[in-house]
Amino acid sequence: MKIKEDTLIQELAFKAIRSSGSGGQHVNKVSSKIELTFNLKDSQALSELQKLRIEEKLKNKLTNDGVLVLQCGETRSQHKNKAIIIQRFLELIKASLVVSKKRIPTKVPKSVIKKRLKNKRQLADKKANRRKPDIQ
Question: Is 0.85 topped by the overall pTM?
């Protein structure tokens, strides 16, 4: 299924927040971490079928309201973090829209079954020969 990346990106909401962790005085003043929010239920870029598929695959990452929240604070640059999070978001959406093929179980050939049983019998005989004879 095809998705419209441009319209998807327009529906994203970004918020700059302060990064956690070490970094000295500068990290306490600058909001370089980016938080991306995407409201799946109100999206115009996705069809209903796509929304259902995404909701099923990403149910652990969605809030109760159907909002996807992602964060990125990998770099010190706000612009780089924004680019990283947009790329990560698009990959996540594309991966969740991929339909996996249904597995068709195959039948085990009779020759394989015979071979397995033959080997099993040989091992059983070998172990039986190791036992002490039963003399009475």
Answer: no
pLDDT, tens digit (0-9, with 9 covering 90-100), for 35-73: 999 998 888 888 899 999 999 998 898 999 889 999 998
Q: Cα(130)–Cα(90) distance, rounded to whole angstroms? A: 64
Please report which helix (H) or strand (E) contains residue 114, including its range. helix 110-130
The residues pairing with 96 across neighbouring beta strands, listed in sequence order, are: none
DSSP states along 54-79: HHHHTTTTB-TTSEEEEEE-SSS-HH
CA angle centred on 122, ends 119 and 124, rounded to 5°: 110
Its sign, for the CA torsion 54, 56, 58, 62, is positive
Rounded CA gap, 124 and 116, in Å? 12
Distance CA 40, CA 12 (A): 10
Measured from the Cβ of residue 53, the count of other Cβ atoms closer than 10 Å reads 17
Q: What Å distances lie between residue 51 and 3, 41, 48, 112, 123, CA to CA?
A: 11, 7, 5, 45, 56
8 Å CB contact between 37 and 62:
no
